[in-house]
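Hi team,

As requested, here is the filled-out complex form for the glycine run. I kept the field names the same as last time so the parser does not choke. Let me know if anything looks off before we queue the next batch.

— J.
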Amino acid sequence: MRRLMVDLGERSYPILIGSGLLLQTQELGAALPQSKHPRVAIVSNETVAPLYLAALQASLTSVGADNTPLILADGEQHKTWESINAIHGAMLTARCDRNTTVIALGGGVIGDLAGFAAATYQRGVAFIQIPTTLLSQVDSSVGGKTGINHARGKNMIGAFWQPKLVLADTAVLQTLSAREFSSGLAEVIKYGLIRDLPFLEWLERNLDALMARDAEALAYAIERSCSNKAQVVADDEMETAKDGGRALLNLGHTFGHAIETGMGYGQWLHGEAVAAGTMMAAELSRRLGWIGEADVARIRAIYQRVSLPVLAPTLGASRYLELMSHDKKNIDGKLRLVLLRQVGDAVTFSDASQADLMATIETCCET
Ligand code: NAD
Ligand code: GLY
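And here is what came back:
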């Protein structure tokens, strides 16, 4: 088992990475309130629950915890107030009190929903992340961003609410579809592009092993990704740094969120939108003279090797700009993008010209 810490003072918590951790009860038990029968509400969905709920329930029973499962419909389109209401309703019906711990068992959608429900139930109860997709194991389960989508924008409503524990069982990744697995790799590649060039080079050497879901390669990539994320979050938990900071984790996301919202939630997977969005960020960085055509081609080749899209859908440049104008990183109405000063070194940038933006969007969309 690999163990990392997210260093946030008294709210610090461990990330555990390893095969078979769902059945490993010691750390799970230690993260629950020390009462005779700790109370747990499990939030999962109709795809993940048939695969892994029984194992989690057995582990909870063996540490003496009472659990109430709530199984939501599957999909990004359910990251809504209705789902939050359903979680709260089930918790109230089960008479969950403030000592209850909410456990998210699922991908990023379940993690974001369960975390937001935990942040708001009776003004906040404890929360544990058990991420079951590659994307959620390397990104969304770490760092405490929780929330839901709004018709006008991705992740527009939410709260920072850190978990007590992140338990990433790498064995569960074997049941993930090829498309979802590739989507997760987009966030792995992101860490190399924004701040860890040696990791990007390691990825270029090991993409075939990762695509074959080689256990050792996967565990290393997850650990290195989480280590990068933990450092960024520890330095800028609430994303308040004026330049850089946690916002850098959003490389490709301003364009990507526009794709997800513009196409309708669930049409493009998050990682797919991030890959196409990162190609747009790379193209804009090239136009600014920061990186060269060879760098753009290098990034494109990485995505192509893992079956991720390198062209964005055609929504029209003005629709992209309208959608991007709602981005949470924007300050005083000014678009703030994450771009590449070099491959392996991202920066925030608020001075992109309208002409460069329009040309970038037009160059990077499907014809
Ligand atoms: P997801 O949660 O929709 O999961 C993808 C699909 O895989 C779903 O159909 C799910 O049911 C299924 N699945 C999950 N685990 C499985 C398993 N082990 N075997 C088989 N199927 C499984 O999507 P995701 O890619 O995990 O997460 C995307 C979401 O995460 C987006 O909403 C995005 O905004 C959010 N996100 C949040 C953060 C954050 O910091 N909070 C960061 C990145 C992304
Ligand atoms: N995934 C972006 C962040 O956690 O800040």
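Two things worth flagging: The longest strand covers residues 153-160. The pocket of nicotinamide-adenine-dinucleotide (ligand 1) is lined by residues 45, 47-48, 51, 74, 76, 79, 106-110, 112, 132-133, 135-136, 139-140, 143, 145, 154-155, 172, 175-176, 180, 183, 270 (CB under 6 Å).

Thanks,
J.
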